[in-house]
Amino acid sequence: MLGEGFRVEAQAKNHRIVMDLPSSFGGAGPTPVDLLLASLARCYGIVSRYHTPKHGIEIRGMNIIIEAEYDPAGFEGEDVKPGLQKVSIIVEVDTPNSEEEIKEFMKFVSQHCPIEDTLRSQTSVTTVIKKK
Predict the structure, then answer these.
(1) Which domains does the chain have, with CATH numbers?
(2) Which of 25, 75, 82, 111 could form a disulfide linkage to 21, CB 3.0–4.6 angstroms apart?
(3) 45 and 62 in contact (C-beta within 8 Å)?
């Protein structure tokens, strides 16, 4: 649903999500790209927590940092790729497990994270237009 200015609202199950343009464009909320990257970070956290018992991993704390590169000129209408060009995931883990165990486990997490899989793959997207 379109709101004031460039503000948009989305409904995800019973949750209302408000998005906007960056403050440099006069917006006041997180952008859709911000939420995509936040989703990637949170997906890593959830997949990690879900699978730790099965892998003998103990995680006392985890910080997931997502860095991304993209050219905003694509969004602005220029003839350049509007989407993300590079995404880096930095995982800081407080654990008694060895570095090798954590590296292997995080490789597993990477392979089973639905958001990362979607970003890596060529997911089919279909748009249907309905006039009201």
Answers:
(1) 1-30 (no CATH), 31-120 (3.30.300.20)
(2) 25
(3) yes
pLDDT tens-place string over residues 24-45: 778 888 999 999 999 999 999 9
For residues 1 and 8, the answer to whether their CB atoms sit within 8 Å is: yes
8 Å CB contact between 21 and 31: yes
Spatial separation of the C-alpha atoms in residues 45 and 30, rounded to whole Å = 20
pLDDT tens per residue across span 55-100:
999 999 999 999 999 998 998 899 999 999 999 999 999 999 999 9
